[in-house]
Amino acid sequence: MIDAPVLRWLLTLLFVGTTLWHAAVAVLPRVRSAVRVDAVCHTLMGAAMVAMVWPWGMAVLTVPQTVLFVLACGWFLGRTVVGSGHDHADAFAVTRGAGVHHAAMMAAMAWMVASMPSLMGGHGSGGGHHHHALGTTAAVGAEPAVLAAPAAMITANVVLGVVFVLACLPWLAQAFDLGRRLPDPQAPGLGRVVADRTCHAGMTLGMGVMFLATGG
């Protein structure tokens, strides 16, 4: 959940845009089945990230989401191991580097979904508990362990945030590089390639910002 209203709306618009793009790819005619699965995975991730930005997203069950994104991570790892297209003229080609990136995004999503309740509840967890006199020593002794988990999660989220903000740069650079050739009559599908790379850059940047916002 993002507390700052402006950032919340900016991320919402970003994730809605990228989600709609991947949903459109998923229903395009004459695309490979593997491409449809890729697009569905990204569509579900985008929808989950939209929900995660808002307070009502905390009510969405975490276990099914975590399982879903672990499976999606496995899908992209499989795509990487088997080997994929390397033709950048193909808008939906998944190179091995891209496959690793997508798998990392799905794994990070699983982590974000699983850790969000602890991060959101950890800051105020101590206010609602009352200890009897005989249990005071045990409670005090348990406090460092209780506080250690959120601290570790916050550190992990900050690191992941920086990693994903940096990881968006290659996608963005490729989009700019290919975009300079537009319009190109010899490559009628180039606009679709640029849009796809831009959406991956945007989703990666948005995930990095989400991690930094929840880690801060």
Describe what this molecule looks like in 3D.
The protein is mainly alpha-helical and 216 residues long. It has one domain. The chain contains six helices and no strands. The protein has helices at 5-26, 33-53, 62-82, 96-122, 136-179, 190-215. Helix 2 runs antiparallel to helix 3 (62-82), helix 4 (96-122) runs antiparallel to helix 5 (136-179) and helix 4 runs parallel beside helix 6. The longest helix has 44 residues, at 136-179. It is globular, with a radius of gyration of 20 Å. Mean pLDDT is 82; it is low at 85-89 and 122-148.
The number of E-state strands comes to: 0
Coarse structural class = mainly alpha
Q: Give Rg in angstroms.
A: 20 Å
Sequence of secondary-structure elements: HHHHHH
Mean pLDDT reading: 82
Offer a quick outline of the entry.
The chain has 216 residues and is mostly helical. It has one domain. Helix content is 75%, strand content 0%.
List the defining traits of the structure above:
216 residues; mainly alpha; globular
